[in-house]
Description:
It is a multi-pass membrane protein. One of its GO terms (biological process) is stabilization of membrane potential. Pfam families: Ion_trans_2. Keywords: Ion channel, Ion transport, Membrane, Potassium, Transmembrane, Transmembrane helix, Transport. By secondary structure, the protein is mostly helical. The protein has one domain: Helix Hairpins. Helices cover 65% and strands 0% of the residues. It is built from six helices and no strands. Helix 3 crosses helix 6, helix 4 crosses helix 5 and helix 4 packs across helix 6.
Amino acid sequence: xxxxxxWEKGVNPEGNSTNPTNWDFSNSFFFAGTVVTTIGxxxxxxxxxxxxxxxxxxxxxxxxxxxxxxxxxxxxLNAHLLxxxxxxxKPGRAQVQxxxxxxxxxxxxxxxxxxxxxxxxxWSYGEGFYFTFITLSTIxxxxxxxxxxxxxxxxxxxxxxxxxxxxxxxxWLALVFNVGADLMERYLQLKWHKSDLSLAEGATTKLEDxxxxxxxHIPS
Length: 220
């Protein structure tokens, strides 16, 4: 019964862990980051009524504040990229900078981090990449979470650095999703426009090809 209660409260009873609590500063910092970023792995959650009430009010203020921070961070990135929203209308340098932005961000947030997680956590590269994308996309299944293996000894700032990486990775991936959504929307609008033009041209051609029907004159 004690083991089950500990498991429900986020403590892993397997292995020999010297960590006296799962609510030390590093874990608490990581938990706070998963709350304001709406990832919510689910492996760690407040169990007392006071902690749950505080978590609700913390999320009410923390989530909008984090969204505002990510918005400002995204605007700062856009300023250095000659505004991502107009890169299609400005070929040349803007497209080159967009390619550099995508390549650099992919390396920093999607390629190199799985290598670190694979080394520290003992995962395969595929598992590390899976955790990276699921985290930065705020899906957060909770099947893979860093710093939870009781048989490993992590440095104190490991999870805190991971939380900081998550915040900046969210800003980058959000910009990528926005660019992708904008391109898809423009493609669909162009496709629908072409489809409407084809229907209009087809209707006009049909009217021109049809012979004029003879009119019957009925005397009064």
